[in-house]
Design brief:
There is one protein chain. By secondary structure, the protein is α+β, with helices and mostly antiparallel strands. The protein is built from six helices and five strands, in the order ααβαβααβββα. Strands 1-5-4-3-2 form a five-stranded mixed sheet. A hairpin with a 2-residue loop joins strand 4 and strand 5. Helix 5 runs parallel beside helix 6. The relative contact order is 0.16. About 5% of the residues have low confidence.
Length: about 190
């Protein structure tokens, strides 16, 4: 009887050990797949030891999609082969962003930051798309009025994205974010 009892407890013990191994393996798999995804900006920072520029805020986010295209696009940018387009993502109610700054002013901010005259009637160019996002929640828990998202594209392929929040509806703060975006882009493209 004691021998049968020992064999039965051994079977139960083995069953719980196997079940524990399966649960741990499933937990690790799920964690790695869904919770431990490295942010591309962090991967890029680790791979290329870029230092933050003074203008960058702590919660600014960026993503380099194609480093080779980015380096070539800097040449086009410096020669004036670029086009700027974009718009506003406004709150559904009580939107005031366009009372503070309009699309023409935003485009002028980009041109001033680029400091290179834009060529006219060009077929190949760097596309700079922007979105002024009003009042959307992001990953940060800090108070903000909105965000500026800038995407650089070459031949329709995204090569760099920069995302920064602004705290107040202030034209100068938005201008500073755009200046910083261009500085960061040029800095990362030149390395």
């Amino acid at each position: 009887m004691s021998r049968s009892f020992r064999r039965q407890s051994l079977i139960i013990n083995n069953f719980f050990t196997l079940a524990s191994i399966i649960i741990i393996a499933a937990t690790l798999t799920l964690y790695n797949r869904y919770f431990n995804q490295n942010d591309d900006s962090n991967v890029e920072n680790k791979n290329n030891t870029y230092l933050k520029l003074n203008c960058q805020k702590q919660d600014d986010r960026f993503k380099v999609m194609n480093k080779a295209l980015m380096e070539n696009s800097l040449k086009a940018l410096n020669l004036g082969y670029y086009k700027i387009s974009g718009g506003f993502l406004k709150k559904e109610k009580d939107s005031i962003i366009e009372q503070i700054v309009d699309a023409n002013k935003i485009e002028q901010f980009y041109k001033l930051a680029l400091n290179t005259p834009q060529k006219e009637d060009i077929t190949k160019f760097l596309q700079i798309d922007y979105e002024i996002i009003e009042g959307r929640n992001t990953q940060s828990k800090v108070f903000k009025s909105g965000s500026v998202k800038t995407t650089f594209k070459a031949n329709g392929n995204e090569i760099f994205t920069y995302f920064s929040d602004f705290k107040f509806y202030d034209e100068n703060e938005i201008k500073d974010i755009i200046d910083c975006t261009i500085k960061v882009y040029k800095d990362y493209a030149s390395k």
